[in-house]
Write a sequence for this structure.
């Protein structure tokens, strides 16, 4: 099942810099593993924003929920999920 996920990161300005650095590094590693496993299909930066537009390919809603709650930055994110269906005019 494909889902588009829009994630906006809102790190508190007063967050301990060491916590910020380690959380961002953990997020990068988490995303790297899921991209290699194939579940995190696309990861795009929304230009000019601390947000991304991602596409996940997961077995079901519960798996997506599990992955999103596991994001190290999840406590600092606004997340919007859109289930995707095939567009009738899509050529690939
Ligand atoms: O920077 C972001 O948009 C949040 C994020 C998701 C995966 C990652 O490495 O950073």
């Amino acid at each position: 099942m494909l889902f588009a996920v829009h994630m906006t990161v809102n790190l508190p300005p007063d967050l301990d810099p060491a916590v910020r650095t380690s959380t961002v590094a953990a997020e990068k590693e988490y995303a790297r593993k899921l991209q290699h496993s194939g579940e995190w299909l696309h990861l795009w930066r929304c230009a000019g924003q601390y947000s991304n537009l991602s596409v996940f390919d997961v077995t079901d809603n519960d798996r997506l929920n599990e992955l999103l709650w596991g994001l190290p930055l999840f406590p600092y994110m606004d997340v919007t999920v859109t289930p995707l269906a095939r567009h009738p005019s899509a050529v690939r």
About this structure: The chain has one domain: 2-83. The chain is about 35% helix and 30% strand. The helical segments are 17-37, 61-69. The longest helix spans residues 17-37.
